[in-house]
Amino acid sequence: MGKVFPVNFPVNDLNVLSTFNKVTGHLEVEPPNKDLHTFNGVLYLDDKKKFSFSQDQLLLKGANLANTEWAIGLVSYTGEQTKIMLNSQKGRVKMSHLEGMVNQLVLYIIMA
């Protein structure tokens, strides 16, 4: 498991949001892929701090976070690049045998 870093300010402080607005840096993550069980990334803050991330810190689309009063989130992939979307497949068209026969007969009648 990755390192756990303590919170440097009280979470009930009204200035929490203004504290986050002052944080700057960049996130480097692996390219989008289908593997739901791996994730590697590093957050570099401008004050030269470095935080590494793995699948232990990853919440996938639809996940529920329980027994937690608050959380800090950082989005790494969006839209079609999410791991869940990369794993999704188009649904196949379901057609009964009778429907297939009726469609063929209709085409035969139209072509005749």
Itemize the secondary structure elements and their pairings.
Layout: H1 16-21, E1 25-29, E2 41-45, E3 50-53, H2 83-87, H3 97-111
Antiparallel strand pairs: 1-2, 2-3
- Compute the average pLDDT: 77
Number of domains: 1
Shape: elongated
What is the subunit arrangement here?
single chain
Regions with pLDDT < 50 over 5+ consecutive residues? 1-10
Largest beta-sheet characterization? 3 strands, antiparallel
Number of helices: 3
Helix share bin: 10-25%
Beta-strand percentage?
Answer: 5-15%
Radius of gyration: 24 Å
Strand line-up in the sheet with most strands: 1-2-3
Q: Termini distance?
A: 70 Å
Total beta strand runs:
3
- The helix-and-strand class reads alpha+beta
Descriptors for this entry?
23% helix; 3 strands; 112 residues; alpha+beta; elongated
Any overview of this molecule?
This protein has 112 residues and is α+β, with helices and mostly antiparallel strands. It has one domain. The protein is 23% helix and 12% strand. It has three helices and three strands; from the N terminus they run H-E-E-E-H-H. It has a three-stranded antiparallel beta sheet with strand order 1-2-3, with no helix packed on it. The longest helix has 15 residues, at 97-111. It is elongated.
